[in-house]
Design goal:
This protein has 16 helices and two strands. It has 399 residues and is an all-alpha fold. It starts with a strand and ends in a 10-residue tail after the last helix.
């Protein structure tokens, strides 16, 4: 295995080996899951196989995470620059883009040509959409980087689920406003994932459109201009949809509707659990404190991190958004999710269960200490939460 060496502040040498180096290939291959179901359906005729990947992700993956446990290993800071500059990791994020494209094309072809029942057709669209949700995650990793090729690859892969506004909204909006009431992509305590989705999805569209029209206006250009990056990406998505309709018929409109909705909800699921209830405090001048690792829920569960390009080390990502996935670190005393993302999604989909597990976990955080004034609380749920957990202490007084 490749070793990275560096010099520690005390002058001693340190050597680091990424023992997961080859295992990061799982993030590249994971989007190909729908092809397994297509192959098994072609062999057996049983349409159950078309949705098997969806069931596996929400049953087997949480169990694997629980069995494998967590990996709190960190690369020493002295070797992080070498690790970031190792192009092997970068090539993996390049390689996953054509595989995302292939998965969408393959699923659309099979849905349009195979003799499927309505349930089988919709099931395949749902699983393909789940894979397209992974495409947004790949676009997330690529879209944070400064190189032109990575930015363009992000636009291409985000066109698959027609979510081309993601990078602009995420980088300029979410990262600036994260864990504040102003951010539509930060969930509030007492807010169900379904209410959050109704606020977050249109909020992301509106915020990205505002940023892009503002940029164009500063250049003396109208919003509906060929240089509009959102229109470029959405235009590519529209071209893909038109090609599918021409090739496989009008049924592709239903396929794409389910496909895109599933992809959007995958992203919403991640956004919901990543910052639930966490709040950055304001200083005397009304400015929010700098985003710190404690403002994101973290997970070190091995399997789901290996298939999501380390997305679950979200705390370090928000503190250091340009840091590449292989270099993201674990910190002590972070807000920790009870399972990897797939298991946490399951909790979130049953709001009473989610509240039961996460609300007390949120209030027990060292920087919260049971004080609702230190929590991003849903206005609709505030009275209920105050009755259950106690009203905020006045002026930060001891409780």
């Amino acid at each position: 295995m490749k070793a990275y060496t560096g010099i520690l502040p005390d002058g001693s040498m340190v050597s680091y080996v990424d023992r997961k180096r080859r295992l990061w290939m799982l993030s590249v291959l994971f989007p190909l899951q729908p092809f397994i179901g297509i192959w098994l359906h072609a062999e057996t005729g049983n349409e159950f196989w078309l949705i098997a990947a969806l069931l596996a992700n929400y049953t087997i993956a949480p169990v694997i995470d629980a069995l494998l446990g967590e990996d709190e290993n960190n690369p020493p800071e002295a070797v992080v620059m070498q690790l970031d500059q190792d192009r092997y990791y970068r090539y993996l994020t390049y390689a996953v883009v054509p595989l995302h494209v292939a998965t969408m094309l393959g699923c659309a072809w099979y849905a349009g040509t195979a003799d499927l029942s309505p349930v089988g057709f919709l099931g395949l669209a749902l699983v393909a959409g789940m894979s397209a949700g992974l495409a947004i995650n790949s676009g997330h990793e690529l879209g944070h980087k400064n190189s032109r090729i990575e930015r363009w690859l992000a636009r291409i892969v985000l066109a698959i689920p027609a979510y081309g506004h993601f990078s602009l909204d995420h980088n300029r909006g979410h990262h600036r406003a994260v864990s504040t009431p102003e951010d539509p992509a930060s969930a509030r305590m007492g807010e169900s994932i379904y209410r959050f989705a109704a606020r977050e999805i249109p909020g992301a569209f509106r915020r990205a459109w505002h940023f892009e029209t503002e940029r164009l206006a500063n250049r003396g250009r109208p919003a509906w201009h060929p240089d509009n990056q959102l229109l470029q990406s959405w235009g590519l998505s529209a071209a893909i949809a038109a090609a599918f309709v021409v090739a496989f018929g009008a049924q592709m409109l239903l396929f794409l509707l389910v496909h895109h909705a599933a992809a959007y909800f995958q992203l919403t699921s991640a956004n919901y659990i990543e910052h639930y209830g966490l709040l950055r405090r304001k200083d005397a001048n009304g400015r929010y404190e700098r985003c710190a690792p404690r403002h994101s829920w973290n997970s070190n569960h091995v399997f789901s991190n290996l298939v999501l390009f380390h997305l679950e080390r979200h705390s370090d990502h928000h503190a250091n958004p340009l840091r590449r996935y292989q270099s993201l670190r674990h910190f002590e005393d972070l807000p920790q999710l009870p399972n990897g993302y797939f298991g946490s999604y399951l909790l979130a989909y049953v709001p009473p269960l989610w509240y039961r597990v996460m609300d007390r976990r949120l209030l027990a955080l060292p920087h919260v200490q049971g004080d609702l004034s230190r929590v991003n609380v849903c206005p609709r749920a505030r009275r209920r939460l105050e009755l259950r957990y106690g009203a905020p202490a006045p002026d930060g007084a001891a409780r």
